[in-house]
Design a protein that fits this description.
With 91 residues, the chain is α+β, with helices and mostly antiparallel strands. It is built from 3 helices and 2 strands; from the N terminus they run E-E-H-H-H.
């Protein structure tokens, strides 16, 4: 991946060269043309949606106590320790 940055108005815009299958690029170009939008607008929107969908995961992984709880659970599963049933879990 290749990166470059430049200031556009008040924003710092980065350029990232990403290799995608040609057929996907072609379909994206067609959609952008039909919608009279630039491909970078569509890609930026898709990236925003992806980040939003994964925000909870990022939030969890940024909390060290949660990482330890997750790792402990994984160790227990490997050891064959049975977990709690749904009715035994705290709210």
């Amino acid at each position: 991946m290749v990166y470059a940055t430049k200031r556009l108005g008040g924003l710092i815009m980065s350029t990232a060269t990403v290799r995608i299958p040609e057929n996907k690029r072609d379909v994206l170009k067609i959609i952008a043309t039909v919608e009279k939008r630039e491909m970078k607008e569509i890609l930026s929107e898709l990236i925003d949606e992806y980040i939003e969908r994964h925000k909870e995961t990022v939030d969890l992984l940024s909390k060290t106590e949660w990482i330890e709880i997750i790792e402990q659970g994984k160790r227990e599963v490997l050891k064959g320790i049975k977990g709690k049933t749904l009715d035994k879990l705290e709210d």
